[in-house]
């Protein structure tokens, strides 16, 4: 044992492999998540401006449009968010498909309500609209089903921007109130209308008006559609997508070892028992076909168990269990096929490559915790090909958005099917090339020698067995 531990080769290979794999795992996983606010670009947010405006003197005011323009012009907002001016039905349609993390809604009587609260005489709004309390607030509708961190990032950008807009509007309303009050005093007019109210409120120090003018724009936040009950606060789709990926990876890994052991190209060790079967004369291509066929069957079983346990025993909210199973089966089969191909092409290192490619690179770029728009550029590009992102898109559509095709289900299913076909084509190309080049897993001469040795051993062992135990 001491001699073996002194061998440099015994230490070098595992040290190099472990260092490379751990370094890659750490770089992939942490680099994608350490600074989402610094990397966020193009986070989709809808803006609904229903403000009808109002007339103050000879000027038509539209404070809602000023807020919208201010958001669009703000570098802090436009650099991080992708603001899309839409109608309220369009915004609801986008959020019901997971295409927007939040919507800013400016109500119809917003300008008239602010002017009335400031004591300024305004015209151009219907009588009731100008005094409704709800028309004084900008509503921020959040969409946690699209991703809780994405909602948090969007709110974190919008709230300071709306607070800055409130300060700008405060200065404008205060100046207008002072100008109206000054004009009334200079003309010597004793009125009891809007200007007198402004004078009494702002000029004379009315506490309520002063408090309003200090912060005229209030923001009320509410959820558009809260996550379903028993959905891990909107994270169940991510957990299920990760489990689906692991189903495919584990099936591919287990089939590689068990089928190779059954064919005599791998050993089997269970407890103290070590087994090596006689190698069979079989091509790489036929071996790969056997593993693929078995993977299709096994992934159907394990994903079915996954859905049954998750939706049945655990009680996870799953409104379309059959569709969820079919989609999970397709995705797991695609990952299993890819894992088997990597084993067939690379041998034992294929397991490490599959682990990095499917699991850790997938976790870093799937958008399950950190949204795609908040990932560094490399990971955004990587996410276009990573299977975990496509699985997550389909799971979210099924679990949270009523299985709508354009909510991510079509993307997920088509991507999984394309991935499966690509892995099948790549595996066939590589393995059949190995066979054509006579790159056998075991040299035919060695295989013949092993088979002859096994036959000789059996022939020698049979007479001893036939004689039975000797009498004492």
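Sequence proposed for the structure above (472 residues):
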């Amino acid at each position: 044992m001491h001699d073996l531990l002194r061998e440099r080769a015994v230490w070098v290979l595992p040290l190099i492999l472990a260092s490379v794999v751990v370094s890659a795992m750490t770089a992939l996983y942490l680099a994608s998540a350490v600074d989402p606010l610094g990397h966020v670009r193009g986070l989709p947010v809808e803006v609904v401006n229903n403000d009808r405006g109002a007339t103050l003197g000879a000027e038509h005011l539209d404070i809602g449009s000023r807020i919208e323009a201010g958001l669009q012009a703000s570098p802090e907002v436009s650099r991080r968010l992708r603001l899309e001016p839409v109608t309220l039905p369009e915004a609801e349609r986008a959020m019901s498909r997971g295409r927007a993390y939040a919507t800013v809604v400016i109500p119809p009587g917003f300008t008239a309500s602010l002017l009335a609260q400031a004591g300024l005489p305004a015209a151009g709004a219907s009588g009731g609209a100008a005094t409704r309390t709800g028309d004084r607030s900008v509503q921020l509708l959040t969409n946690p089903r699209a991703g809780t961190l994405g909602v948090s990032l969007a709110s974190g950008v919008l709230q300071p921007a709306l607070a800055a807009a409130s300060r700008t509007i405060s200065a404008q309303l205060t100046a207008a109130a002072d100008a109206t009050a000054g004009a009334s005093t200079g003309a010597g007019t004793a009125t009891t209308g809007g200007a007198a109210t402004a004078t009494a409120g702002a000029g004379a120090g009315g506490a309520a008006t002063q408090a309003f003018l200090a912060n005229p724009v209030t923001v009320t936040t509410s959820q558009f559609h809260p996550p379903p009950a028993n959905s891990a606060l909107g994270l169940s789709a991510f957990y299920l997508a990760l489990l689906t990926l692991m189903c495919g990876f584990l099936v591919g890994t287990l089939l590689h070892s068990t089928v190779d052991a059954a064919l005599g190209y791998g050993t089997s060790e269970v407890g103290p028992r070590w087994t090596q079967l006689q190698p069979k004369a079989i091509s790489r291509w036929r071996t790969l076909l056997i593993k693929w066929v078995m993977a299709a069957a096994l992934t159907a079983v394990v994903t079915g168990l996954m859905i049954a346990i998750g939706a049945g025993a655990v009680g996870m909210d799953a409104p379309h269990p059959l569709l969820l199973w079919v989609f999970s089966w397709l995705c797991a089969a695609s990952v299993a096929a890819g894992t088997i191909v990597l084993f067939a092409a690379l041998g034992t290192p294929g397991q490490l490559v599959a682990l990095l490619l499917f699991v850790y690179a997938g976790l870093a770029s799937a958008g399950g915790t950190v949204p795609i728009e908040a990932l560094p550029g490399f990971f955004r590009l990587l996410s276009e090909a990573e299977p975990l992102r496509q699985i997550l898109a389909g799971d979210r559509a099924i679990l949270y958005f009523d299985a709508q095709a354009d909510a991510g289900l079509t993307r997920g299913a088509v991507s999984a099917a394309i991935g499966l076909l690509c892995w099948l084509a790549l595996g066939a190309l590589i393995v059949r090339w190995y066979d054509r080049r006579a790159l056998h897993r075991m040299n035919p001469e060695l295989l013949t020698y092993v088979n002859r040795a096994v036959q000789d051993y059996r022939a020698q062992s049979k007479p001893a067995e036939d004689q039975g135990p000797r009498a004492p």
